Amino acid sequence: MSDIKKVVLAYSGGLDTSVILKWLQDVYQCEVVTFTADLGQNEELEPARAKALKLGIKPENIHIEDLCEEFVRDYVFPMFRANAVYEGEYLLGTSIARPLIAKRMVEIAKQTGAQAVCHGATGKGNDQVRFELGAYALNPNIKIIAPWREWDLLSREKLLAYAEKHGIPIEMKHKQGGSPYSMDANMLHISYEGRHLEDPSAEAEASMWRWTVSPEAAPDKAEYVDLEFAKGDLVAINGERMSADKLLRKLNELGGKHGIGRLDLVENRYVGMKSRGCYETPGGTILLKAHRAMESITLDREVAHLKDDLMPRYASLIYNGYWWAPERIALQALIDHTQQNVNGWVRLKLYKGNVVVVGRDSKTDSLFDPTIATFEDDAGAFDQKDAGGFIKLNALRMRIAANHRARKG
Amino acid sequence: MSDIKKVVLAYSGGLDTSVILKWLQDVYQCEVVTFTADLGQNEELEPARAKALKLGIKPENIHIEDLCEEFVRDYVFPMFRANAVYEGEYLLGTSIARPLIAKRMVEIAKQTGAQAVCHGATGKGNDQVRFELGAYALNPNIKIIAPWREWDLLSREKLLAYAEKHGIPIEMKHKQGGSPYSMDANMLHISYEGRHLEDPSAEAEASMWRWTVSPEAAPDKAEYVDLEFAKGDLVAINGERMSADKLLRKLNELGGKHGIGRLDLVENRYVGMKSRGCYETPGGTILLKAHRAMESITLDREVAHLKDDLMPRYASLIYNGYWWAPERIALQALIDHTQQNVNGWVRLKLYKGNVVVVGRDSKTDSLFDPTIATFEDDAGAFDQKDAGGFIKLNALRMRIAANHRARKG
Amino acid sequence: MSDIKKVVLAYSGGLDTSVILKWLQDVYQCEVVTFTADLGQNEELEPARAKALKLGIKPENIHIEDLCEEFVRDYVFPMFRANAVYEGEYLLGTSIARPLIAKRMVEIAKQTGAQAVCHGATGKGNDQVRFELGAYALNPNIKIIAPWREWDLLSREKLLAYAEKHGIPIEMKHKQGGSPYSMDANMLHISYEGRHLEDPSAEAEASMWRWTVSPEAAPDKAEYVDLEFAKGDLVAINGERMSADKLLRKLNELGGKHGIGRLDLVENRYVGMKSRGCYETPGGTILLKAHRAMESITLDREVAHLKDDLMPRYASLIYNGYWWAPERIALQALIDHTQQNVNGWVRLKLYKGNVVVVGRDSKTDSLFDPTIATFEDDAGAFDQKDAGGFIKLNALRMRIAANHRARKG
Amino acid sequence: MSDIKKVVLAYSGGLDTSVILKWLQDVYQCEVVTFTADLGQNEELEPARAKALKLGIKPENIHIEDLCEEFVRDYVFPMFRANAVYEGEYLLGTSIARPLIAKRMVEIAKQTGAQAVCHGATGKGNDQVRFELGAYALNPNIKIIAPWREWDLLSREKLLAYAEKHGIPIEMKHKQGGSPYSMDANMLHISYEGRHLEDPSAEAEASMWRWTVSPEAAPDKAEYVDLEFAKGDLVAINGERMSADKLLRKLNELGGKHGIGRLDLVENRYVGMKSRGCYETPGGTILLKAHRAMESITLDREVAHLKDDLMPRYASLIYNGYWWAPERIALQALIDHTQQNVNGWVRLKLYKGNVVVVGRDSKTDSLFDPTIATFEDDAGAFDQKDAGGFIKLNALRMRIAANHRARKG
Question: Where does ATP bind (chains A, B, C, D) (predicted)?
């Protein structure tokens, strides 16, 4: 361990990472660089600076960064081009933030001459994998410190005792047990795990949800919203063009207001167990629905089906932490290639938890051809007789087989 | 054409198939056997008998059958085992009824000595393909008559004129133009296409929907419902075991009441064009959500992912009319094999268009292991140190590549 | 038909397309533009000019083009980047030439103001589909004339009679029945179908094969050859850099000499029937083996597996005629993306039908890391203890399931 | 460790596993049960008994079993039904033996009351994963001892010193350095890794190969052989029905004689590195070729393509050690389902490394229909006009898109 002189710690300013900070100083006897990222989790980050200073971190070693725009533009939006959903339900809100944090940690390590990076993710979860696969892919020689896999502070009592002993400020909420949930948030979503949720047969408590109102409490009047897309990415809401960051914030506001994007599921972790999680993804839920609708009139059928066939694989790659792996990048090349014509607008109706597509159009790229699709007289645009041959040849192999079976008796 | 002496006609009793009936008698000069199936479309079928008699069909040539139980048990339920959704949205309500109709037509043809079958599906749509691929797969030598691809009655005016000339009763609604939509219904869904919907940018009219109330008009109070599954199939609702037919009717009732299952989309037809359709699938929407939740605690991760990877292909097969094809049957063998442990119950909350999973459990087959999943002390059930090696080896290929890139410079 | 004033005919100069030429003049009463492509089929093309002139084609309407370099560079090589093989065996020699012919026909039609294109492919085969899908994709309004689906000259006797009647020169070989096989050739392969081969239980006649010697007749001494790749494409043989065209000619020469690349198989045609074909693909067989070996040390594992998973789909697209379809192009974007590091060389031993890889290396891009792979002491490059955790977590879901089964009894 | 009283050791009788045996007695101080399996590796197994006795194993603790028939029937044949090939080349000879060994180890542990199993596979390879995933899947609570990941005998010198010190007989070959290769054999194949092969650019030494003659040394005269299949499995050679075991032995004999089945490749291990291996799979190479040919006339096209699409995944599962995983078993259900009609015979020509299919037929299940496939007059079996509509509708989406592009300009 003596070869680690400096370490970059992903530091939230909370109790757990403050304990880790202290523990690194004690056990590894190394200089600690803190890295605190604003990913839109709706938390004040300056207190993290004050706390880091108090714990003896040099001012120049404290890195607090606003990554919101980069996060949405370079991670969230590319993922939504793929309509990525894990196991049919989960919108990958936690998963997609990890690669960016891993990247910045490795970059800050390089910049500050640190040999190692350190994170506060548990040894049972997916996040450790996502952080570390990302870090290794970007710097194969980086050292990684994962305290939860190393130390013996495995109970809350031990952690609090350690904090007390080392003069780490403990807020009242931690003394009282704090939130009953293990939570994670960024601009795409907030997640809840643990405690009450560990019984998958029990309904989540109404008080748990933080970002959305319940459908019951949402407005009684529906709201219409127009989303505009360019090359598969959202570019404007109700005619107003905004940065990626602002667009997602706006969608979150709309979704939160209308009770949209709550999810309660049991998922399969990469490390092998099933786990129950609850999520709020208000803006993402709206965006996914709209993007699919946008594609429905602008993508060729077989391209859309190819994307659908590959989507679960792509989603698993992100869930499992392979954002920086060459196979994710290769799939992204295909996905991005398909989005060049995904331009136009989608109209949605938001109402008490529902996101309903009510209209979609593309001035430049619609493949919907009303002269062919019509149930009215199409003036010869489509020769119905063609269907006879189409069916006959598609049936041929089955007819040969059926004839064979008949002969066989 | 002289080799067709007798033909089985898929007969609804409506104007179109009545015109076809007459046209077959005229043009093919053959005996017509009518086949009218009750698939839960919520229509009286006895009028079809009266009308057929009036059009000169012999009583013994009129076949009216209640296929509801067979439909749900042998077609709808097997499809839901696969969580089949076409193009991310469509629950395949029309598609799944066609194979059963094709099968009964071929069987009745055999039983009555008919050489041909005839249907009233348009030459532009998917249904002709589904009927005919099914018929050919089951009887490779059957003749198929598809009047819309043969005759010249391509406008509504010509059709009405033909009807009038041949004494086919025309109801007032047809004279007035009838429904503005082309509709299809069976116990799984009702669909709307055409007219106003041919502009995909325009919202569907509120008056169009028939099976569900709007979310706005749904009760202000949520309703909880418990669904019980055995081998992947729904077997009981709120503790009451019922036949497949009754179960789906009950789900439809619940969904209809709570404004669940409306869908407005643009889909890609097998014959090559995009088409806009609106659907109400109240019970199916509930069932799909519940089945996925049931699988979430009873299916192995990799089995679930295998199913997810194959699902779009399976759904396309059904959409395109390949129910009776050997590849659909091979996939079904895999899917059915996976369902043996899909036993337990799911609790749902229904509220104004929302189907929310709030709990799930399986006394016999839950793979959710709280002793391992817990965020609390797990008493050694999971050794967090294992994760280090897991990550290291999964990262190895990326580290080798990164080292290589670094050397390459 | 009167709207077709000019038609571009894919003209080989042989009997069949000469009859078609005449038939077009007679039946369509239109001006005929002939297009004869040199794709490396090893045939003199100037006789086609003389024959066309004799049949009344204006000199300026005769197009004879050497497409060899374009064919190999833009069609064969991109396909080999994917390691495309149809149904586990067939190297797609015929399939890959059709898109280029279709493209040139459409371009010549545009350039000459022709409304239609015409080909001599049978109505039972794949080639008609490939020509026509290509033509339609490139010019949706082109008219296509497929005489074999229109005329009644369906027997060889009728064809000869027509030729005789219209003064089309009939070579002796045709009078004597000609080759017993239906053949197609281009620089990638030569194919044989029909006659004797229509009994798939019977061995092909030794006299049939034209491009390769039999393994028995090949040299008794093996020959070593070094192939060099850049970005997945062959660029040099035995150190000599050549154009794509020359490289494939050289491989064909080597393969032909050593009895390499004969194939006898039953394949599934897109139009629905099984068909028996024999193929000689001497150069392609060598190239495929070498390309796979090149990738084996330069491609990441998961990228290689992704390519393997997608390959059958890509191959089917080409077989079925979808070269110009957007889904093929999207897949190609992924495939080409993966090839940037496929650089290096492969050493092969050629001997009596065998292509044996005996060595491969990449100075710039080898991911083979001997310090890790070694069975000897690796000085800590790989920590074997990591494997324990790797296995434990990969086994976890199966252990949970097994424990569950045990409890269930 | 004190909870391990008894351990089942996979014991070959060679130096390595003898050292392990001793080491277990020393370090774990437990009773050792030896398990030696005859999988057709062509080695005398009785010496293993003598050696075990000499090392203090009780006679009743020595298990030597002939598993040849079970191996071929229940592992090799099911795998060949899938045409499984890893990374386009490797026939999975080592991989497929591991699940059976794992199963027997777990069964013997249960029968003898052992708490643990132990194997001699290195911590860098695939075999440890295969053994252990199998063992865990079959008994989730089994303890596994992997000495190579635990001890410090990591060099050959240390191993020999340990053996000498503990009185383990060292054969002359080990003193002289032994084989230059790390080898594994069973009835399906023999493999070579390490030493000279660790340079993938260097040709394997001619003296390495043991089971096959070189093509050069093979007979100058080809040999024909007829293979008969029932439900996808080989059942007879040249008309002689034999047990699975005998059939594969016979194929190995034929392949070995004719220089068939040598392979030299670089593969991607599950643990993350590339590795160079050479393989001889004489019988398997013949069997794979024949099985594909058998399927070519008996399998429906889309079923065959479904199998091809899934094959790489199935092969990876076996390569990675997931034979006993539920997803492999689910895939097997599909694969076995498809094999019911794979009945008939295939004729092969074996000559100097070449396996050439020259004929195939199935009296009961051929889907090859000569009346349709024929190039001659088919008397209306296939209406060529049908192809027009088939192509038109398949082209429709591309024509709509092309028209759109043209309008867009």
Answer: 10-18, 37, 120
Q: Which residue of B has its CA nearest to D314?
A: B306
Candidates A409, A318, A351; CA nearest to A102 is A318
Q: What distance in Å separates residue A59's CA from the closest CA in chain B?
A: 32
As a whole number of angstroms, the distance between CA C36 and CA C15 comes to: 14
How far apart (Å, rounded) are the C-alpha atoms in residues C116 and D330? 51
Tell me the chain B residues in contact with residue C363 when contact means C-beta distances shorter than 8 Å: none
Look up C296 and say whether it is catalytic: no
B190 burial level (CB within 10 Å; 0-12, 13-18, 19+): buried
What are D13-63's pLDDT values in tens digits? 999 999 999 999 999 999 999 999 999 998 889 999 999 999 999 999 999
**Given the structure tokens 């979503």, which residue do they identify?**
A189
- Is the domain spanning A185-299+342-361 CATH 3.90.1260.10? The answer is yes
- List D182, D296, D316, D366, catalytic entry: D182
Closest CA to A272 of D325, C405, C389, C398: C398
Domain ranges of chain C: 6-66+97-178, 185-299+342-361, 370-408
Backbone angles phi, psi at D211, to 5 degrees: -100, -20
Q: How far apart are CA D375 and CA C155, in angstroms?
A: 10
Nearest to C193 by CA among D375, D387, D376: D375
Residue B225 Cα distances to A262, A352, B250, B346, angstroms: 19, 20, 11, 8
How far apart are alpha carbons A303 and A299 in whole angstroms? 7
Is residue A307 within 8 A of residue A232, CB to CB? The reply is no
B16 is known as an active-site residue: yes
Q: Encoding tokens for residue A40?
A: 């839109």
Which positions of B make up the binding site for L-aspartate? 122, 126-127
CATH number of the domain located at residue range(s) B6-66+97-178 in this protein:
3.40.50.620
For chain A, 409 residues long, give each residue's pLDDT as a single digit of tens.
458 999 999 999 999 999 999 999 999 999 999 999 999 998 889 999 999 999 999 999 999 999 999 999 999 999 999 999 999 999 999 999 999 999 999 999 999 999 999 999 999 999 999 999 999 999 999 999 999 999 988 888 889 999 999 989 887 666 666 667 899 999 999 999 998 899 999 999 999 999 999 999 999 999 999 999 999 999 999 999 999 999 999 999 999 999 999 999 999 999 999 999 999 999 999 999 999 999 999 999 999 999 999 999 999 999 999 999 999 999 999 999 999 999 999 999 999 999 999 999 999 999 999 888 777 777 778 899 999 999 999 999 999 999 999 888 7
Could you check whether C6-66+97-178 and C185-299+342-361 share the same CATH topology?
no
CA dihedral A186, A189, A190, A192 (to 10 degrees): -130
Name which of C174, C217, C207 is nearest C278 in CA terms.
Answer: C207
- Asked if B220 and B262 touch (Cβ cutoff 8 Å), the reply is no
**Residue A177: predicted pLDDT:** 63
Please determine, for residue B176, whether its predicted confidence score (pLDDT) is greater than 90: no
- Please state, in angstroms and rounded to a whole number, the distance separating the CA atoms of residues D241 and B364: 45
What pLDDT shows up at residue D172? 66
Interface test with B, best of A201, A216, A227, A264 (most B CBs within 10 A): A201
What pLDDT does D157 receive? 85
Of the residues C301, C331, C407, the best mutation for testing chain D's interface (the one with the most D CB atoms within 10 Å of its CB) is C301
Per DSSP, helices labelled H in B166-300 are 172-175, 244-257, 282-298
Cα–Cα distance measured from residue C11 to residue B227, given in angstroms and rounded to the nearest whole number: 67
- Is C275 marked within a binding site? no
